[in-house]
Amino acid sequence: MPTKPSPEQPLPRDFFDRPVLDVAPELLGRTLVRTSEEGTITVRITEVEAYAGEIDPGSHAYRGRTERNASMYGPPGHAYVYFTYGMWHCLNLVCGPEGHASGVLLRAGEILTGTELARARRPKARKDHELAKGPARLATALDVDRALNGTDVCGADPAAPLRVRQGTPAVSRLVNSGPRTGISGPGAVHPWRYWIADDPTVSPYRAHQPRRRAARLDAGATGS
C-alpha cells in the first residue's frame, strides 16, 4: 500500500506535467511557500483559474509565443509572473508538457504563516482573510514580481524563493467551478475558475467590464 505523502513534501514535477484542467482543481488546499530575505510566508491555495494555452482565447499564449509569455512554454512546475494594468503582478504555475503553454493563475489563498510580514506588505487589508484575496493581492502579500518569473516551484531547498508543497488537498465535494473572472469573448464561457466553497479568502466573481473610451473634447461641438 503506497505511503501517503507528508503535507510538508514538495509537489513532484509530474503533478504539473498533466492537462491544466486536471491540475487546477487539485491545487486547492496545497501550500505555497514564499521565502525572501524578509522572511517566509506560507499560503493555503483557495482559488485558481486554468488557462489552456494556444487553444484558449483567454490565455496570454492564444496568439503564440512572445517575450512576455515565454515562461509558459517552459517546463512544468515553474512560475509564470506577469505585470498587468501597469500596476500589479500575478503568479501562475506552468502545467503540461514543455512547449504546451498552459498554466494556473493563483487567485487567492489563506495566509498560514508569516502573517505579520504579509500585513506589512498589505497595510490596507482590513482583515487577515483579505491579505491574499485576489491575484494581485496575493502577489503583493508575497512580494512576487517579474524577478521570480521562471522560478522552479518543485524543489526541496528550504531557501528556494517559491515552493509548492503537498498541503491538504481540498475535499472534492467542496470544490466549486464557474466562469473565469474578467474574461470576455469566446474564453468567457469556460467554467475554468475553481475555488473552495464558503472559504472567506476567495475573491468575488466579476464579469468582464469593457473599458470605456474617454469622450472627445470636441464631441458635440461641431454643427452643420
Automatic annotation (TrEMBL):
An annotated Gene Ontology molecular function: alkylbase DNA N-glycosylase activity
Official protein name in the record: Putative 3-methyladenine DNA glycosylase
Organism per entry: Streptomyces zhaozhouensis
Family: Belongs to the DNA glycosylase MPG family.
HAMAP family: 3MGH
GO biological process: base-excision repair
Keywords of this entry: DNA damage, DNA repair, Hydrolase
NCBIfam families: 3mg (TIGR00567), PRK00802.1-3 (NF002003)
Pfam families cross-referenced by the UniProt entry: Pur_DNA_glyco
Disordered: region residues: 203-224
Assigned EC number: 3.2.2.-
InterPro entries given in the database record: Formyl_transferase-like_C_sf, MPG, MPG_sf
Root EC class: hydrolase
